[in-house]
Write a structure and sequence with these properties.
There is one protein chain. 77% of the residues lie in helices and 0% in strands. The chain is mainly α and 111 residues long. The chain is rod-shaped and about 110 Å long. The chain starts with a helix and ends in an 8-residue tail after the last helix.
């Protein structure tokens, strides 16, 4: 009977490393199956931050456009837009044109 017990121990000890390898492989496969979803979650979190920044910028632009629309509902706003965008002048005003070369620091005689 002692011999049989010894054989069982020998067989069991031979199977123990195999069981460890099988468990390790199972754990490895389990971890590998979580890598792709984990990467997607991390990418999604960084995308959320980008989108939040984009929303903030869009709100700022929207507020500026609302303010501009409000201004254009006034006579002064309409006049300012006409002057800035279309170069219009009021009645009785004189216009002076400055040549481009004088704006950049040159002289009128080209020197």
């Amino acid at each position: 009977m002692n011999r049989r017990a010894t054989r069982g121990v020998v067989r069991g000890s031979n199977l123990r490393p195999l069981a460890v390898v099988v468990y390790a492989a199972f754990i490895g496969l389990l971890l590998a199956s979580y890598l792709s979803p984990l990467q997607q979650i991390l990418d999604g979190n960084s995308r959320v931050a980008e989108l939040e920044h984009e929303i903030k910028q869009t709100r700022i632009e929207n507020e500026a456009m609302v303010a501009q629309a409000k201004e254009l509902k006034t006579d002064a706003g309409i006049e300012r837009a006409a002057r800035d965008r279309y170069g219009m002048i009021g009645p009785g005003e004189e216009v002076y044109l400055v040549p481009e070369r004088m704006k950049s620091g040159g002289t009128e005689d080209g020197g």
